[in-house]
Design a protein that fits this description.
The protein contains 23 helices and 16 strands. With 621 residues, the protein is α+β, with helices and mostly antiparallel strands. Among the domains are: 142 residues, Ypt/Rab-GAP domain of gyp1p, domain 3 (Cyclin A, domain 1); 174 residues, no CATH class. Helix 7 packs across helix 8 and helix 9 packs across helix 17. The longest helix is centred in the middle third of the chain and has 19 residues. The protein starts with a strand and ends with a helix.
């Protein structure tokens, strides 16, 4: 690890009591580095004669298109030989689409000039750790002393050439890995620079600011919420910080994975970009969930425990099985992931995180003073762990309480309209507690000129139970920006009415329709993030759900409020807020949230702090 030094002002006098990390470059190690230090046989050997089989494979690589290379990378085609992998990396990186890179990508000569300027002819020189690094730690993997010295030099040169790169904790590991397969320092510098310069947002490689890094962490959290059900509830129930737990996700890959695993991930990452990292981290989290479920009581810190698990992942899974598991996860398109990433970035900016600042503290939600007549603090932590990450940044605000605002649906509408999203929580006379997360402003019910009720909302809606058991029900899609449901088959809303008609309340005899026309807004987002429970799919079998499948999310008028309308209502409330009904619902693949018909003991609606501002921001695009 680098030494810690007291910061000195330019005049040489002591400045403020701030310590910075320093890196020492020792040129005395350079005799170990030759122009072919990354090659197995060196520059004087015809490797095709020594290794004819890898040589044939390399010719196949040169003749293959991008899709073929993706398949080869996933299958470990060039993993049989260090030299073959080095040549494959060179071919892949040098063929990254130049039109998606910045105007000028530094070449080998740029590195030589930078190195001469920064290190000169000195045998030993000391430099401050680049600002973009989290700390001075550099994964060694299989590098020798000379290799570690070269990594330090490359990292310092990258910091000098890319001054706007203010936060990039994965770069030390990435440089270290690529140097294993580079001809020399200049080639490694060039290769990493190509990845840094790549500008296509739908296939990005490296986050370069704290803002984008945190937005990626939140995006991973949203994916984990869908694909690894149960882990969020587990961590939230222990009162540990979910936001901080997910902030480590990319370091599981670029700091904690053993070398043989990390390079197999690198094989596909260079071809497929950031999306692969999401897949691998989700697979690791899924494995961890199985491992930790039997020893939850013994885990004091989930972040540390997860780090140790990844470091020893070989005990639980081979690298081939890990990648197979990763690519069996039905995940969104790059374009859809980018929409989610941008929504999370907007929320962080509204939280005060700026583009230009470096490391910043993101204030976590404070539930210590939380008070409710329906749910406990722990139960509210679980709900907040279930909702999308960009909303979970903000504190809950109570908008409606039946004891204070009365048993009247019109009063509920009046109190909650203009707020998006909201959480509806109900306690029955039988002490059952359940509810719904509604992603769209209930004012939307007024915006459609059609006879009868009109469904609206997005796939981020879900329903849940808290007592007697905790469970969240949500279909495997999420329409982040879209307020209007996609075209649906008409459904008669009399199913719930059949159980309540004799009581002459909640007469659901009106026809429930949906708006006509498929949304053409480019922000429309459908994410098939997980296969239905009980019907696991392989990567080849994974199919994206059709737009018309189960998207009747919310409907309401002065006489009723309905959540879920496919196959049955997940929740139906009457105008007097005295009673309601819950049944099997295909919209969320949900069981009845209670015993069926229920009498309401208490009801609360919670909003998100700054939710009006959030709503306007996300839907003004």
């Amino acid at each position: 690890k680098p030494a810690k030094r007291m910061w000195l002002s330019h005049s040489g006098s002591k400045g403020s009591a701030r310590t910075v990390s320093m890196i020492t470059i020792s040129e005395s190690d350079n005799w170990e580095i030759c122009s072919s230090s990354g090659m197995k046989y060196g520059q004087f050997v015809d490797w095709e004669k020594i290794d004819p089989e890898p040589a044939k494979k390399y010719q196949q690589i040169l003749k293959s298109g991008h899709q073929q290379l993706k398949r080869m990378g996933r299958e470990g085609f060039w993993a049989i030989s260090h030299t073959l992998r080095a040549k494959a990396y060179y071919h892949i990186i040098h063929n990254i689409n130049s039109s998606n890179c910045r105007a000028v990508t530094p070449n080998r000569d740029v590195y030589y000039d930078l190195a001469k300027k920064l290190f000169g002819e000195q045998k030993v020189s000391t430099h401050q750790v680049p600002d973009y690094m989290e700390d001075g730690d550099i994964p060694r993997y299989c590098l020798n002393k000379a290799g570690m010295n070269s990594v330090k030099k490359i990292l310092i040169c990258l910091g000098s050439y890319f001054p706007d790169m203010s936060y990039c904790p994965i770069l030390p590991a990435l440089v270290s890995l690529i140097l294993h397969f580079s001809e020399d320092e200049a080639e490694c510098f060039y290769s990493v620079s190509r990845l840094i310069c790549y500008k296509d947002p739908n296939k990005r490689y490296i986050d370069q600011t704290f803002l984008t890094y945190r937005a990626s962490c939140m995006t991973f959290g949203d994916l984990a919420n869908r694909c690894c059900r149960g882990i969020r509830k587990l961590i939230a129930s222990s009162h540990q910080n979910l936001f901080e737990f997910y902030s480590d996700w990319i370091m599981w890959i670029f700091a904690d994975l053993p070398f043989t695993y990390a390079i197999r991930v690198l094989d596909v990452y260079l071809l497929e970009g950031f999306k692969v990292l999401f897949r691998v981290a989700l697979a690791l989290l899924d494995l961890y969930k199985v491992s930790v479920s039997s020893r939850v009581a013994d885990v004091e810190d989930f972040r540390t425990d997860m780090k140790r698990f990844v470091q020893s992942v070989a005990r639980h899974c081979t690298v081939e099985k890990l990648l197979e598991r990763a690519f069996q996860i039905p995940i969104a398109t790059r374009n859809e992931l980018n929409l989610l990433f941008n929504a999370n970035k907007d929320a962080l900016m509204q939280k005060g995180v700026s583009t230009h600042q470096k490391r910043q503290t993101v204030e976590s939600v404070d539930l210590n003073s939380f008070s409710s007549s329906v749910v406990t603090e722990t139960e509210m932590r679980v709900i907040w762990a279930w909702i999308p990450e960009r909303f979970a940044l903000f504190n809950p605000v109570r908008l409606f309480h039946i004891a204070e605002d009365g048993r009247d649906l019109s009063s509920l509408y009046k109190r909650v309209e203009g707020h998006e999203p909201i959480v509806l929580i109900i306690k029955t006379m039988e002490e059952e507690v359940f509810g719904a997360f509604l992603s769209t402003d209930l004012m939307e019910r007024r915006n459609h000129d059609s006879q009868g009720l009109t469904y609206f909302g997005t796939g981020e809606c879900f329903v849940f139970t808290l007592r007697p058991s905790m469970e969240r029900y949500q279909r495997a899609m999420v329409n982040i920006m879209t307020r209007i449901a996609s075209p649906q088959q008409h459904r008669d809303g009399s199913s719930s009415a059949s159980q309540l008609a004799n009581r002459e309340v909640c007469q659901l005899t009106k026809t429930v329709s949906c708006t006509n026309g498929t949304p053409q807004n480019p922000s429309y987002l459908t994410l098939p993030l997980s296969a239905p429970v009980g019907n696991p799919r392989t990567a080849k079998e994974a199919k994206r759900p059709k737009e018309q499948d189960a998207s009747n999310f919310i409907a309401g008028d002065d006489s009723q409020l309905i959540v879920g309308g496919d196959g049955g209502h997940a929740l139906c409330l009457c105008d007097n807020l005295e009673e309601g009904n819950s049944e099997l619902c295909d919209t969320f693949s949900s069981n009845p949230l209670c015993k069926g018909h229920f009498q309401i003991q208490s009801l609360e609606v919670w909003g998100i702090q700054n939710s009006i501002y959030l709503s306007r921001s996300f839907h003004s695009r």
